[in-house]
Write a structure and sequence with these properties.
This protein has 310 residues and is an alpha+beta fold. It has helices at 16-27, 42-52, 64-74, 91-95, 102-114, 139-148, 154-157, 159-173, 235-247; strands at residues 2-7, 31-36, 57-62, 80-85, 118-126, 129-131, 134-138, 181-184, 190-194, 196-200, 206-208, 211-213, 225-230, 258-264, 266-271, 277-281, 284-289, 291-304.
């Protein structure tokens, strides 16, 4: 196969040695070209170019943000996406069954390529941008913004940085007393008091160490989106929400502070009084916005799937 190895050299787990080892492994059976990203959006353009040139696979070595950009370049083409974990959390790579080590994941990727384990999957779309696993709105996105302001620490601090950002966001950077947005579904149902929401294309939402944060078990690559809207950020209620997410098994959907719908084809999120609210896509903070249109786009991208998931 003709393979483009697309590397984000700034991702948390990417090293010079890792790049060399992975390229050598892929080149054993495939024609491989390696390129590195240099700025935001670069991966999308490189992936688009690979698809236009008729390459078979683009293997993305980077974090979830780089995977998202690569997916946006490949959606709607016949060039498949292969994922290797290179970031701090690697939600999408681990969701599809890869270990959190890029070299170990390369062995599973090669196994999948050998037997052409490639399937057509659906993606989410938010205001025309595709996403692989989720869009976060409200408090979640405000937390990601604070993490990105300290992005230089992600390689070394990891989960402690997220915990610190969560606390500073709560106390300093987000209004936890008043709702920020409303959610409207095609059938007319409306949730008018959203503080924090996640629109998921897959599950889990993230990982805390090796523990999945299980908020939407019905969200899979085979069906529509799942929308989790948290309707209160009162301390006792949010602690209960966190506990149920860690508990998993659909416990979160039963919480009275949560509105949950799954297998949704589309929905709209609007700021209360047209006031903008923060949002993030696949872990990348994209700013504040007053309206989001989200939908599920089935059978839009080929994905290399591990045969024997970790």
């Amino acid at each position: 196969m003709k393979v483009l190895l697309l590397v984000n050299p700034f991702s948390s787990s990417v090293t010079a040695r890792t790049r060399v080892v992975i390229r050598k492994a892929l080149a054993g059976d495939h024609e491989v070209e390696l390129v590195e990203t240099a700025r935001r959006g670069h991966a999308t353009r490189l992936a688009q170019g690979a698809a236009a040139d008729g390459l078979d696979v683009v293997v993305c070595l980077g974090g979830d943000g780089t995977v998202n950009e690569t997916a946006n370049g490949l959606a709607g083409t016949d060039t498949a996406l292969g994922v290797l974990p290179g970031g701090s959390t690697n939600v999408f790579a681990r969701t599809i069954g890869l270990p959190n080590d890029p070299v170990e994941s390369t062995a599973l990727l090669l196994e999948a390529l050998d037997i052409h384990s490639i399937r057509r999957i659906g993606l989410g779309s938010v205001n025309g941008r595709y996403y692989c696993f989720h869009v976060g709105m409200g408090y979640d996105a405000a937390l990601v913004e604070q993490v990105e302001k300290r992005s230089g620490l992600k390689r070394w601090a990891g989960h402690p940085l997220f915990m610190y950002a969560g606390l500073t966001t709560w106390f300093k950077h987000y209004d936890t007393k008043h709702p920020h947005f409303k959610v409207t579904y095609p059938d007319g149902e409306q949730v008018g008091d959203g503080y924090f929401a996640v629109c998921a294309n897959t599950n889990p939402y993230t990982y805390i160490g090796n523990k999945p944060f299980d908020i939407a078990p019905e969200a899979t690559l085979d069906n529509g989106l799942a929308m989790v809207t948290v309707r209160s950020l009162r301390v006792d209620r949010i602690l209960r929400v966190i506990f149920r997410a860690i508990q998993g098994g659909g416990a979160l959907a039963k919480d009275p502070a949560v509105h949950y719908r799954y297998d949704v084809e589309s929905l709209v999120v609007e700021g209360i009084g047209d006031k903008p609210f923060p949002y993030q896509v696949d872990g990348d903070y994209l700013g504040d916005i007053a309206r989001l249109e989200l939908r599920h786009v089935p059978d839009i991208m080929d994905l290399v799937m591990p045969v024997t998931p970790a």
